[in-house]
Amino acid sequence: MPQYSHPDAVNGRGSTANRTPSRFNLLSRTLDDDWRDEHIAVDGKKPGLRTSVTEEHSKSIITFNTSPDLPFDRSINAYRGCEHGCIYCYARPSHAFHDLSPGLDFESRLFAKPDAANVLRKTLSKSGYKPAPIAIGTNTDPYQPIERTYRITRQILEVMVETRHPIVITTKSAKVTEDIALLANLAKDNLTGVALSVTTLDAKLARILEPRASTPLKRLETVRELTDAGIYVHVNIAPIIPAITDHEIEAIVEAAAKYGARSVSWIPIRLPHEVAPLFRDWLDLHFPDRADKVMNIIRYLRGGKDNDPSFFSRMRGTGAWADLIRMRVRIAKAKYAIENSKWDVRSDLFVPPSDDRQFSLF
After folding, report:
1. For 81, 122, 144, 241, which has the most beta carbons within 10 A of its beta carbon?
2. Distant-in-sequence, close-in-space partners of 329: CB < 8 Å, separation ≥ 6
3. What structural domains does the chain harbor?
């Protein structure tokens, strides 16, 4: 039986520990755990791990890509690291670039870009800029808890409303509804859509799998609230984890339809670089009875390896397991009348931002 809590787990975090990144020949590093040892000696409890935020002032904010298996060529990430703490997050290795661990550091030592909206305005003002949908939330969640303090995502949306620029959002957070007025403004002209990632309907499993993200029910309620506001909502069953969440595929599709989602997609779990050992640690802690089985199926999906970074197959997997998941999703979508495709936002209404926002009012 799964152990939904464990004395060795860090309270409120997904990773069990920090793992030192080795790809960049960085020096070994250890946590200063003396104070924790003293705390445990006094009352036998492990304290929670505090979140710290470093402000980052970037000269550019839009990242462009040429990946043939992505439906967008540009994205914005307002934050580096993500407090949601999803153990499976494929973005964890990016923290290694900062000489930080993709483990606990990724979910507790965050970076925020408070100048993002101003930098974005300057980018959109350039004479050679050609509009196309900007994806937000592709690496780290734009509505993770620190958004309530920094409001960077909201400021970006305000620029999108001003310029009538298309934007698509991916999130696991019900906090997206705090910007529902801005999103509805964009949605009336088919300039936006929101994808809610739903990994499981089991609240207890979600608590250890993605500990600081909104509960599954809150996400589904968010689907309904956004849909009722006229916003296109897509549900992404991501990631599907063999022998952990794959039995819920049909139930998630049914729930997505019940709460008003227009379309559904899926992605099998991806374990690039340091994510694989972190995930294996998590399995050994919470699912020791099936850890080997889970990893064996993942390797079957990934051509015998922990991860397959190849274009297209990285999003779908290969082999009989991938074919079975694809067939199950297709049958479920047909049963519950869910569309096959995502939204198709428009880019022809774009107006460059004014040099003087106050002047534009007159």
Report:
1. 81
2. 237, 249, 253, 264, 266
3. 53-345 (3.20.20.70)
